[in-house]
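Supplementary notes for students who missed Thursday's class. We covered one full example, reproduced here. Read the sequence, then the structure, then the short commentary at the end.
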Amino acid sequence: MDWWFVAVALFTIMCSATQVRPDASDHKYNIGDAVPLYANKVGPFHNPSETYRYFDLPFCSPGVVKDKTEALGEVLNGDRLVTAPYKLDFLVERDSEIVCRKELKKEDVVQFRNAVIKDYYFQMYYDDLPIWGFIGKVDKEGKADPSDYKYYLFNHIHFEVFYNVDRVIEINARTDPNALVDLTEDKEVNIDFMYTVKWKETRTPFEKRMEKYSHSSSLPFHLEIHWFSIINSCVTVLLLTGFLATILMRVLKNDFVKYTHDEETADDQEETGWKYIHGDVFRFPKYKSLLAAAVGSGTQLFALTIFIFILALVGVFYPYNRGALFTALVVIYALTSGIAGYTATSFYCQLEGTNWVRNLLLTGSLFCGPLFLTFCFLNTVAIAYRATAALPFGTIVVIFLIWTLVTSPLLVLGGIAGKNSKSEFQAPVRTAKFPREIPPLPWYREALPQMAMAGFLPFSAIYIELYYIFASVWGHKIYTIYSILFIVFIILVIVTAFITVALTYFQLAAEDHKWWWRSFLCGGSTGLFIYGYCLYYYHARSDMSGFMQNSFFFGYMACICYGFFLMLGAVGFRATLFFVRHIYRSIKCE
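Structure (token representation):
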């Protein structure tokens, strides 16, 4: 039944994704036609989450500022497009044309100067092509004392537009280094905001105009690093997993031979090792409702990740497709909630649980609950900062309606289907009435040391690629090599499954039969390592600062790492359950 939900979700997503790329017929122009130019946002270059509306700074206003209607994903991305003061009509050149003459008051000068100090950049979109630039510069040359620094505002932008027949192909914007306005002193300043437009012909076809933005992550130097990352991961993983597999298979083979020989000899011989606890290994764990909910939520997140990769590999998330990823995340998560409901409730009923409604509520809130609380706090911070990351009330209502009308009903339908599946738990051996006492174990066989060992190996397989992902999500780099990322993800899943199985075997061999929760925690421990990498990236690889940026970085990364914990925990648990059933099915137990 859960595959039915998967099919419906995938079909809906693919149908909605067919119109993601812009239609070429909508981008044809004649000479003198107005080409849409929108100003998006401004913000500190090193704080990607801290962005503000373009006209929050006292730039020239085009008169009536009109907001562009934006999709859900664009709003979630912090985009707030408005009409720009510049006019870049098709094939119409302009030379040092004045946009407006403006008298900056003292408070305007202070506002611009603070923005220059924080390396503010501006972003615009011209015919859906992105434009970036800095608003000013700090002159530090030959000045040791910061009080001697000079602060300048750029007041002249040069636009260079490339066209092919009747279509815009590329646009570059640069600020004139000689057109500067001194903002060092707190005094009123008269300023002329100007711009120049030059048009050049190119042979690049319209269909390939976005390739320029994907080349940065596909340059030979970067590709070498990515392939080195994969080769390093594969070699490390093959060596370590091969070593563990050899030991595990040899030990298992010896165990099977030993137990078979024991069955053919004296019946009163005492059993040892993992066969000794056969009457307890399938004893249902404590907090089985929470375990079932965690497995269900992790399975849903795993399906979400697979669908995102499918869309990425077919080219939906091309560079600067504003908000496409956020839209896909919201839609796919809503549509796959039935998978979580079915998986959690069916597994809970297999564990002889009776209150399936409570289990369903727990499943629905296990991931969404912490995410919602984090969002409420961070959205409040963004509102206090008046940043574009603050979601408008209408967008919050839309998300709530999606959760109410799509996510919750599918979760309930999946739960009902799971409850009615009436499948029994497949245990190859009978469970004893009374649990055996677990013998004293050394410290390194406790849960935390085992989690540390389980999380290190999968993390070592992905840590090089993590830098590029972080530089894309929490920086201004572009990531487009989804095929390599998908390979890394497959390696991560395989290694997580294998290391969890190996550690579970050694746990059972030590006559510790409480493997249910341990396998989930060991599988998900990679998420804790990723969060540890967040601390390293923040201090060693980034220049982020300020309460808002720090809150967004550590808050949302905590949610992402928690999602990885649930997803990889479900992978490790499923692999371990399959392994444990297999080994106990292979021997004869009384």
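Commentary. The longest helix spans residues 220-264. DSSP finds 16 helices and twelve strands in the chain. If anything here is unclear, bring it to office hours.
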